[in-house]
C-alpha cells in the first residue's frame, strides 16, 4: 500500500517512516513534487490536519495522511498551540523556543503537553488518530537531538528532554509515536479484513 504523507518537514518524514509497517510505502510532498505551502488556517489541530490531507487528496486522488502537532503550555493559556511552528513569527525552532522560555520566565506552573492529530484519507473517507504526551517545560535548553520544542520538553516520568533521547526512545513515548501507533493498528486491521 502506498500513502502520501502531506508534509514538507523532513524531520517528520524521517521520524514517521521509522514507525510505519514495512508493507507501507510512504512518499512525502517532495517525492511527488508538490512544493507549494499549504496554509494552516484551521483553529484546531484536527482542522489543520484535515485541511492538509484534503488539499493533497483533491490534487492527487491518492490515499493521504497528514498531521498537525503542537505544544500546549498551561500557564500560557494553551499557547503556542496550533501556532507552534510559527509562534515567534520566523518559523525557526530556536526563536520559538526562546519566546516560550521568555514568556514562562516568572511562571511556576511549567505543565505542558505535546499533541499530534493525524488525518488519514483512505478511499475518500476521513479517519482521525490522536497522540498526546504530558510533561513540563524546562528552564533551559537540554540536548541536541530532535526538532521543534524537543530541547525544552521533559515528558512525565523522565528526567531528560526529548532532545536528550535517542530517536527510538522518543518514538516509543512521543505524541507522534502514539498517533502513528493508532494509525498502524487501523491499517493492520484493514489489511486483515
Q: How would you characterize the largest beta sheet? A: 6 strands, mixed
**What gyration radius follows from the Cα positions, in whole Å?**
17 Å
Distance between the termini: 15 Å
SS-based structural class?
alpha/beta
Q: If strands are numbered along the chain, what order do they take across the biggest sheet? A: 2-1-3-4-5-6
Specify the number of helices. Answer: 5
**CATH architecture level-2 label:** Alpha-Beta Complex
What is the string of helix and strand elements? EHEHEHEEEHH
Average residue-wise pLDDT? 93
Short description:
With 193 residues, the chain is α/β, with parallel strands linked by helices. The protein has helices spanning 10-17, 45-60, 93-103, 167-173, 175-192; strands at residues 2-5, 25-28, 64-73, 111-122, 125-137, 153-155. Helix 1 (10-17) links the parallel strand 1 (2-5) and strand 2.
Structural description of this entry:
- The protein has 193 residues and is α/β, with parallel strands linked by helices.
- The chain has a single domain, classed as Maf protein (Alpha-Beta Complex).
- It is 31% helix and 24% strand.
- The chain is built from five helices and six strands; from the N terminus they run βαβαβαβββαα.
- It has helices at residues 10-17, 45-60, 93-103, 167-173, 175-192, and strands spanning 2-5, 25-28, 64-73, 111-122, 125-137, 153-155.
- A six-stranded mixed β-sheet has the order 2-1-3-4-5-6.
- α4 (167-173) packs across α5 (175-192).
List the helices and strands and how they pair.
Elements (H helix, E strand, L loop, with lengths): L1 E4 L4 H8 L7 E4 L16 H16 L3 E10 L19 H11 L7 E12 L2 E13 L15 E3 L11 H7 L1 H18 L1
Parallel strand pairs: 1-2, 1-3
Antiparallel strand pairs: 3-4, 4-5, 5-6
Amino acid at each position: 500500500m502506498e500513502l502520501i504523507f502531506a508534509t514538507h518537514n523532513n524531520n517528520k518524514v524521517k521520524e514517521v517512516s521509522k514507525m510505519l509497517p514495512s508493507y507501507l510505502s510512504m512518499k512525502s510532498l517532495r517525492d511527488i513534487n508538490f512544493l507549494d505551502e499549504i496554509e494552516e488556517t484551521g483553529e484546531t489541530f484536527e482542522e489543520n490536519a484535515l485541511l492538509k490531507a484534503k488539499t493533497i487528496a483533491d490534487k492527487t486522488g491518492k490515499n493521504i495522511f497528514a498531521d498537525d502537532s503542537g505544544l500546549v503550555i498551561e500557564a500560557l493559556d494553551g499557547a503556542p498551540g496550533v501556532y507552534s511552528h510559527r509562534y515567534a513569527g520566523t518559523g525557526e525552532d530556536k526563536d520559538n523556543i526562546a519566546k516560550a522560555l521568555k514568556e514562562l520566565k516568572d511562571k511556576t506552573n511549567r505543565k505542558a503537553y505535546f499533541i499530534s492529530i493525524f488525518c488519514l484519507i483512505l478511499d475518500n473517507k476521513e479517519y482521525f488518530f490522536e497522540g498526546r504526551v504530558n510533561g513540563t517545560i524546562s528552564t533551559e535548553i537540554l540536548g541536541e537531538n530532535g526538532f521543534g520544542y524537543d530541547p525544552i520538553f521533559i515528558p512525565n516520568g523522565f528526567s531528560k528532554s526529548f532532545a536528550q533521547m535517542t530517536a527510538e526512545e522518543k518514538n516509543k513515548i512521543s505524541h507522534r509515536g502514539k498517533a502513528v501507533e493508532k494509525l498502524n493498528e487501523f491499517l493492520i486491521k484493514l489489511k486483515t479484513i
